Amino acid sequence: MAALGWLTPRRRSATARSVLAGEASAEAARKTSQELEGLADLTHEAAPDAAVHEPVFPVLGDDKAAAFFDLDNTVMQGAALFHFGRGLYKRKFFETRDLAKFAWQQAWFRLAGVEDPEHMQEARDSALSIVKGHRVAELMSIGEEIYDEYMAERIWPGTRALAQAHLDAGQKVWLVTAAPVEIATVIARRLGLTGALGTVAESVDGVYTGKLVGEPLHGPAKAEAVRALAHAEGLDLSRCAAYSDSHNDIPMLSLVGHPYAINPDAKLRKHARTFDWRLRDYRTARKAAKVGIPAAAGVGAVAGGTVAAIALSRRRR
After folding, report:
1. Could you tell me which of 63, 75, 84, 308 has the fewest CB atoms within 10 Å of its CB?
2. CA 230 to chain CA mean position, Å
3. What are 48-85's pLDDT values in tens digits?
4. Beta bridge partners of 66
5. What is the pTM of this model?
């Protein structure tokens, strides 16, 4: 790993393993994003109808800015790791009792709207034991299929519009998630994003060992990954944006000049209001007390949130 002397001062919530996980994730993200750039042109023209009476954000052509999006319940309804587990179960990677455990963890996540550390750790341990001995290329291929089967229909249109606004402004957009970096990269590519920062599982000669590099990309580790990637990419974090639903991501949100609370849990909503962060809740299409969306996203974000709310209400009937 590279020397840590370049790191700017940080709150001491990060451990050495957080830093290791963050740097490993940033290194993997840059590698995969370079591969994705060879597959598609992610540059779009800015929306011509952006409102002229309000400051335009993101700023068109600002190559020192980028956007970082949490995945679970921010970009996608539910937990990516759970949906991945469903797909592996369908392919007989594990037994029914393991699926029941995944289902309970997902139900808790959906009902409580927050991540339970014990449940998340159990899910990660289960996933690592399941993929041990399998080839990375195999899991990437399966991830493509699982995205189509379980994840594509769960993307929040409103959040997707926000990400597109940054792409339209010529900025890079990264997912930042505790999910395996391989699965996160599949999702990022399918959404037309730049790449993904995710948990890095150790592999030797392309085969998973069942161990992690550092620790899961969660909480402070996410902030370390964003910090490392920003340094490598030459970004100015004060001009960057970050989006998340969870108070666990406050360290990441606090790094950037434009933090957004999306579908926030109670603790994040309170924190966001205290620090005057922008809020948006697509679960009900209800505007929060202080609404701030990029002008370039405009009507698309509002309409997307409404569509998502209608779809969700139909599922609950």
Report:
1. 63
2. 16
3. 333 334 457 888 989 999 999 999 999 999 989 888 88
4. 172
5. 0.70
Task: Please give the distance of CA 94 from its chain centroid, rounded to a whole number.
Answer: 26
- Nearest CA to 10 out of 225, 275, 287, 156 is that of 225
Cα distances from 42 to residues 33, 45, 143, 191, 230, in angstroms, run: 11, 10, 22, 10, 19
Determine the pLDDT at residue 112: 54
Report how far residue 85's alpha carbon sits from residue 183's, in angstroms, rounded to the nearest whole number: 11
Residue 70 dihedral angles phi and psi, to the nearest 5°: -60, 155
Q: Which residues are catalytic?
A: 70, 72
Closest CA to 162 of 37, 75, 50: 75
